[in-house]
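JOB MANIFEST
job_type = single_chain_structure
chain_count = 1
residues = 490
[input]
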Amino acid sequence: MRTLLCLLLASLALAQEPAQHGQRYERLLIKNVHVIDGNGTPVRGPLDVVVENDRIQRVGGFAPGREYDAVIDGEGRYLMPGMVNLHGHLHDGRPGSSVAMPYQFQLNLWLASGVTTVRDLGSNREHALRLRAASDSGELPAPRLRLHATVGGGTPEEAVQAVEHAKQSGFDGLKIFGMDKEPLAALLARANELELPVAHHIGIAETDVWDDVAGGTTTIEHWYGIPDAALRYGSQSFPADYNYDNELDRFRWAGRLWKETDPEKLSWVLQSMVDAGIAWDPTLSIYIACRDVTRARNQPWFEDYLHPALEQFFAPSLDSHGSFFLEWTTKDEVEWRRNYQLWFEALREFADRGGVIGTGEDAGFIYQIYGFGYVRELELQQEAGFHPLDVVRHATGNGAKIMGLEDQIGRVKVGYKADLVLVNGNPLENFKRLYATGTDEIIDGKHTRGGGVAWTVKDGYCYESQVLLADARRMVTEARAEVAAQAKED
């Protein structure tokens, strides 16, 4: 009798309307799904997940047979928390391009890749504030946007003024580049007083990570400043004609940096970062072209998703940031491959010492497209030696913690925001299943195109990935036609 009752209740639940793209429901049922939480624990399931408006209301076995406004069938699929992109930039075009690129293009690609929160680290202020408001209200399909203003200053007074202006303008945090010691110390002190988190892209500057340890930076972006603080002889062995403003020089010699560190000094640096509570957002994927530029130029998703604005910006040129591959050599790639192995080792040691690692992509530069670059980051973190469960934790629970949202997002947990990603297949088995284009698989003995994100739910709004992707492809097609028309006129 009990079994028959359960079957009857299940049929009632399944009789509800299927979810529709762009809608948020008072009661949404995601049925029969395997769940990957964002806390590093193994898969559970099959489970039913109930969402009420923008919150997760239930995670458990068979959900009671109640009226639901919509149902998503999760059979054969895996549900994980929405992922956090700690290093994004909002772009409506690229410098030197002859064609505009709608913001919605990259917003669609982020959502279709399972990214539900983006920490924007420097964009057009007016546009970014408008997009954040539209995302928060559900007015447009977009990840949650948290905006960091790019600030600096040549003097302590200028640095403090920049911090205060960013706070008054409504920004969520700050992004800084390499600075001198006194302005940086003043900036960090005022940012901490105003409770503004700081992301630091150090570069080659007077300061390094020791200044961040002393001042209370939130995250180190990329790696700059970490190996620099652990060099054997104080300075890297640059040639006499090295010019930092020449990007070919800058990136060529960056690929020779990690091998010059002293292992004992580096361990000291990493432990000091951990003790100071500084997280590391390595953005491994943004430099991957340096170890194999031919592969980077021929990524399979370029066929449908390489917007002409990006294509023109990526073309080798010393005038476009990150497009420095004018005379990139085999030796450069060999050095960068070794560089990555040492970088991986440092990341693992940092994590082993208790450090918090996040996940960011920095796409829109160096042959990386939004969303695709983020999934590539997951693959590279696995290559670095992290278990897939830990890679997912970096992208979800850790990302939420770094942003101060660990009690709101980053978990499939009752009471948390309904930021969820439903994947066709198990991403822990193969992260390529998260790529918007899916991946080649053998199912029932036959070759097929499988994987891909089926649905992304953000703040309870349901977005069907194939709808988002079709819209992104349309934008690319229209932009290519515009470029062709311009060429014909010329």
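[summary]
The domain at 83-402 is CATH 3.20.20.140 (TIM Barrel).
DSSP finds 15 helices and 18 strands in the chain.
exit_status = 0
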